[in-house]
Amino acid sequence: MWLEKLSFLNALYFTVTTITTVGYGDITPSTGGGKIFAIVIILIGVSTVLAILSNILQYFIQRQQRAMHGHRRNMLIGVFFTEAGNELLRVFCGFDPDIAAIRKDFLVTADWTAEQYQKLKAKLAHHKFEVDPALIELEKLSGILNKKGDLLVRQLENADLTEVEDFAELLWAIIHLRDELAARPSFNNLPKSDHAHLVNDIKRAYSQLTAQWIDYLQFLKIRYPFLFSLALRTNPFVENPDAVIKG
C-alpha cells in the first residue's frame, strides 16, 4: 500500500497473486521499492505456501495411515480373542468363586451404548477377580496355554500390538503364566506357597483379559456387527453360551 500507493484490497490482491505464483499481471510494481518488495515476497512467500500445503497433505496422509494402522491392530486383537482369549476367559471364570455375582453385569446386548461399556469397566475396577485354588485345574490350563504358545509369541513380536501398552501387558501376563506352568514337571503335591504364587499369576491375567475383552466387544459393535453378533452368542461370561440362533 505504501510503496505502490495501492488500496488495501488491491495491495492484498497483488500480494496473494504473487505468493501463489498466479500473477495475472493486472497489478504490477511500478517503483523500485515495489519491485524489491515483490522479489522478497516471491522468494519467501512461495516457499512458505508450499511448506504449508505440504504439511496439510502430510497431515491427511498420516491420519489415513493411523486409521489403517488402528484397524489392522484391532483385527489382530480379534484374532487373539478368537483363537485364545475367549477360551481362557471361560477357564478363568471357572476358577472364580464369585463369578455368579457378576455374570449379570456381562449380559451385553446389541443395544448397549458406549457409556454402558465404560460403566462396566469402572465397576470391574473394584472386582477382586478372586481365584479359588480348589477350583483351579492347572494341568488343563497348562495344556491350553501350551497349544496357544506360538500365537502368543507371534502377537507379542508384532509392533502393531506392542504399541498398545495394556494389550502388551496382557500378552506378557499370559506368556508368563504359561512359562510358570511349563516349568513345573508335575502339579501334584505343590506346596501352598507355590499355589499362592500361581494364583496371583492367574488373577493378573484374568483381570487384564477381562478389561481387554470389553474393549474388543465395543470395537466389534462399531466396526463388525456380524462378528459382534457371534461374540454375544459365545459370551465367555455366560454360564452356558450357545452360538445357535433359535426362534
What spatial form do the alpha-carbon principal axes imply? Answer: elongated
The overall average pLDDT, rounded, is: 87
CA radius of gyration: 30 Å
| Helix/strand structural class | mainly alpha
Number of domains as seen in the coordinates: 2
| Major sheet | none
Distance between the termini: 80 Å
Count of β-strands? 0
Question: Helix count, per DSSP?
Answer: 10
Helix proportion: over 70%
Poorly predicted runs of 5 or more residues: none
Secondary-structure element order, as H and E? HHHHHHHHHH
β-sheet strand percentage: under 5%
Structural write-up:
The chain has helices at 8-19, 32-95, 99-102, 114-124, 138-147, 149-157, 159-162, 165-182, 192-223, 225-233. The protein is mainly alpha-helical and 247 residues long. The chain folds into two domains: 8-59, Helix Hairpins (Orthogonal Bundle); 70-233, no CATH class. The longest helix has 64 residues, at 32-95. The termini are far apart. The model has no long low-confidence stretch (mean pLDDT 87).
